[in-house]
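Input sequence (258 aa), recorded before submission:
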Amino acid sequence: MQPAAASPVIEFRDVSYYVAGTQVLCGFNLQVQSGETLVLLGRSGSGKTTSLKLVNRLLSPTSGEVRVKAVSNTEGDLIRLRRSIGYVIQDVGLFPHFTVERNIGLVPKIEGWPQDRIRARIQELLQMVGLAPENASRYPRQLSGGQRQRVGVARALAADPEILLMDEPFGALDPLTRDELQREFLLLQQRLHKTVVFVTHDLREALRLGSRIALMEAGRLVTVLAPGDFLRSADPLASAYVRAFGEGLESAANRGTS
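Predicted structure, token format:
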């Protein structure tokens, strides 16, 4: 007898979303499994960020249901839901009048952690994301773009959430910093095994970071494939993405932490 399959950590069930009568998502069905990095890939306007925001109820579906850990995310306390999910965005969203230490420790403080535990967690996270301890007393304006993005990741991980939502987190960085942070993300994920939903329009980034790639177009899910299968897909839209990005994609899919 086969063991029962584990429930997905995140599940979209026939989700549609409209804004002022305009369809943004239509009949969206997708499952995200524990410990995987599921990349939402698509051009601007395909519905990627909308899908992400439906998970932590920054938006609510017009129809259908989003389930988090086998429970509809409309059930229970909204604040509790959001505190249980790390969220990293492209422009980081750090509080400019807070030091790095206060930014990272915000959610643990709200959760009532004792101060010594918060301090220890901040130092652990600074090391984890590759920032020197002296950065704890600095303000966001005193950091580079790459450093601010590292602080954003540390803040999202502060209360050790099982789920991490990442919306184009490296998109605004220069190519060298972006490559470095992608490499560090892979190492971090190997260590932590979070359930990650990662939004990007960059196929190379999707191939490098994703356990699976969910290709979206015009608010619909086109296909969900492992990176290597995506490169060989006969789907016309997937093939068009591969052609548009040219040669060298196979190495991007396989280089991982090398």
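Checked by second reader. The beta strands are 10-19, 22-32, 37-41, 63-68, 71-72, 85-89, 163-167, 195-200, 212-217, 220-225.
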